[in-house]
């Protein structure tokens, strides 16, 4: 077993080859210090989430907070100016921290690359530590990769490499392979601390800096926690406060009511907000899963023009531009379709339309999931945004009330058996891949990650719980869902999906209208934990 040489720190995962260069005593001591200082607050904030949901269940309504009205009403304060490499973010590509994918993303022509330890990565020990190695080499521009056929991947020589941004896991996750004083390390702190410790100064030397995307927050107090961690981390490493930049994904319905406050808490480190659309839809279902008034139709019918989604976008753009930070658009899930020109063109047209809608609304940039889509997104933003960003588009005419953010009445939306079956198929295939170490999976010509799979899982719970009816009148019962799950599982080859039985078990547990786990990733996580001397389930 790997010996950490740091008092109170146990590394339970197997450490091989260069991975020890990441898990140095100094790096682990840094992780431990941040965990010891801030994990108690993290746990308190997670309890606060649970308490707030109990209050919503009891009839409390979401609204803008009266105790922070002074922050919203003060029109004079601004966040930090954009940092080097983050002034023009018109197209950002995202993806897991796999070595080949990192190289392709950095070379893609996008302005920035969000390297994702969260929703598009399955957090196996190997993926995490190799991902940190890949980040180290990417920051230093030394990253290369050779595949089994001998093809060599390396960074382009013209210097047009995307600015690197890293997304650590959310506050709800823990890292089971590292114990600090006998408890699992906060996954957020683990991912952040290792990257920051090894790369902060090297990133500055390369002309950018230690930049992050911050996921799944539910309150401004959670943003305050990140800001406190940033300050201590910068002091420890010896870089000026304000060096770090963090873009917050507004991907929970609760956070939508606290956008000003979240920027304010991070104002010396803020680089804006992002419309994390898929997690946002998941959050709406999750927070109101007990309430039949919030039953949503087929996932494909919930678009960015749906009332609650449109209100959220308008408020985000207005808020960000008032405070002088980027208002980033979201991810279109379409990907190129091989061997079907007609279907491929339809997918490209959807991406183009989505990016045109975003730039005309006032967004400063957008996300794509595939290198082939970078050009499409760039064309729309280049045509409609000649400046590096659109901070000057203030959207002062926008007035968004609480009722607008909660208006889930979708004209023309319906639940169909095809939608039910698609949710089961997507959730099952995604879980099977995630359990096998892949967190970013093309399914039915869409790129699925944990966020999109969460919509499928949560809708199934919601529909069964409330005995929702399909457009033809069929009641969605636990028995119907179980029948379709069995049928969809039978279509899959167990050689291609070695964890299929486990995925069926987990998926089935969420479709009874009874049990509902907060996150797919926490539901499945212990099955990918592999400490020395144990075998994967």
Automatic annotation (TrEMBL):
<dbReference type="GO" id="GO:0006099">
    <property type="term" value="P:tricarboxylic acid cycle"/>
</dbReference>
<keyword id="KW-0808">Transferase</keyword>
<dbReference type="InterPro" id="IPR044856">
    <property type="entry name" value="Malate_synth_C_sf"/>
</dbReference>
<keyword id="KW-0816">Tricarboxylic acid cycle</keyword>
<dbReference type="Pfam" id="PF20659">
    <property type="entry name" value="MS_C"/>
</dbReference>
<keyword id="KW-0329">Glyoxylate bypass</keyword>
<dbReference type="GO" id="GO:0006097">
    <property type="term" value="P:glyoxylate cycle"/>
</dbReference>
<feature type="domain" description="Malate synthase TIM barrel">
    <location>
        <begin position="163"/>
        <end position="407"/>
    </location>
</feature>
<feature type="active site" description="Proton acceptor">
    <location>
        <position position="167"/>
    </location>
</feature>
<comment type="similarity">
    <text>Belongs to the malate synthase family.</text>
</comment>
<feature type="active site" description="Proton donor">
    <location>
        <position position="449"/>
    </location>
</feature>
<dbReference type="InterPro" id="IPR046363">
    <property type="entry name" value="MS_N_TIM-barrel_dom"/>
</dbReference>
<dbReference type="InterPro" id="IPR019830">
    <property type="entry name" value="Malate_synthase_CS"/>
</dbReference>
<feature type="domain" description="Malate synthase C-terminal">
    <location>
        <begin position="414"/>
        <end position="528"/>
    </location>
</feature>
<dbReference type="InterPro" id="IPR011076">
    <property type="entry name" value="Malate_synth_sf"/>
</dbReference>
<dbReference type="InterPro" id="IPR006252">
    <property type="entry name" value="Malate_synthA"/>
</dbReference>
<dbReference type="InterPro" id="IPR048356">
    <property type="entry name" value="MS_N"/>
</dbReference>
<dbReference type="Pfam" id="PF01274">
    <property type="entry name" value="MS_TIM-barrel"/>
</dbReference>
<dbReference type="InterPro" id="IPR001465">
    <property type="entry name" value="Malate_synthase_TIM"/>
</dbReference>
<dbReference type="Pfam" id="PF20656">
    <property type="entry name" value="MS_N"/>
</dbReference>
<dbReference type="InterPro" id="IPR048355">
    <property type="entry name" value="MS_C"/>
</dbReference>
<feature type="domain" description="Malate synthase N-terminal">
    <location>
        <begin position="8"/>
        <end position="70"/>
    </location>
</feature>
<dbReference type="GO" id="GO:0005782">
    <property type="term" value="C:peroxisomal matrix"/>
</dbReference>
<protein>
    <recommendedName>
        <fullName>Malate synthase</fullName>
        <ecNumber>2.3.3.9</ecNumber>
    </recommendedName>
</protein>
<dbReference type="GO" id="GO:0004474">
    <property type="term" value="F:malate synthase activity"/>
</dbReference>
<comment type="pathway">
    <text>Carbohydrate metabolism; glyoxylate cycle; (S)-malate from isocitrate: step 2/2.</text>
</comment>
